[in-house]
Amino acid sequence: MLDQIVLYPVADDELFAPGGRVVIRTYGFAKAAPGGDHPVAYRTWVTGMRDQPYYWRWSHYEEARAGHRRVLEWLTGRGPEPVSAARQPSARAAGAAPVTPA
């Protein structure tokens, strides 16, 4: 399946906290069909937080870049929780707290 997807890296960050490492990655991805002009979908994934990955969806590259920055600010307690078209699962409902960098 991965050979059918083209990944476009947007941003990668890591936070080190007393509970472990939190990784924030934003990628664009599209189908890798020959000769096809497929739309690129953008996602920000957060792993290492409450044993469950979280993600946000973005429509465009610029929105993904800004969204990645907002997610990073939210995780470090410097901004509100980001909003996108869809985010699963609810970090607030899972009791997630901002991450304090080590």
Automatic annotation (TrEMBL):
Residues 82-102 have a biased composition (Low complexity). Residues 80-102 are annotated as: Disordered. It comes from the Bacteria. This is Uncharacterized protein. It comes from Thermostaphylospora chromogena.
